[in-house]
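Q: How would the structure tokens look for this protein?
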Amino acid sequence: MTDSLTAELWSGITDIYGAILAHPFIEGLTNGTLRPDAFAFYVVQDALYLRQYAAALAAVASRAPEPAAAAMFARHSAEAVATELELHASLLPELGISPEALAAAEPAPVNLAYTSYLLAAIRGGSYAEGVGAVLPCYWIYWEVGKHLIRRGSPDPRYQRWIDTYGGEEFGTVVRDVLAEADAIGPFLSPSERARVRRHFHATSRYEWMFWDMGYRKESWPV
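A: Here is the predicted structure in token form.
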């Protein structure tokens, strides 16, 4: 077994990542075929998601055994929300979404399921399990951003989203979290490592489902 936890984790989701890149939501960002209403729905759901993701990162920070790791996740909890809310602040008016509409929005089923899983995994598991659960949202978005930035988009709204996640500033944040995962990897027991792998795989699946939710503008059936 390799001591590189991140290499082991990524090798277990290559099929999921391939499915993400092939999804019409992702394809539509670069070829301009993504419907603006689907993108608007996604942006609103992402804003709701971020409130819970910030809580998840704060919970990981509270479990960190080292002060540096605790400070990093606490900082990311604040910075990630600030950065993405700034993106939403510029995108929402362009997409015709008022602050009142955002305030009245409720999480779609996949959104609620994803955030509920995140918080349960973190609060019910170890620090390492929490890192494994939150890592796909960092890492997959960065990889997708890098993939898309090479292709660009004819829609300036989509290009702004791509630039946010494919840029070096976000890459620096992600590399720090990957380094932390690899730092704790060698100290995990086989059973804990397996739990980390299971959480990482589950939330990677949720990443695909989140984009699919946006593409379908998922709603509650009853």
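The longest helix spans residues 36-63.

The chain has a mean pLDDT of 94.

Upvote if useful.
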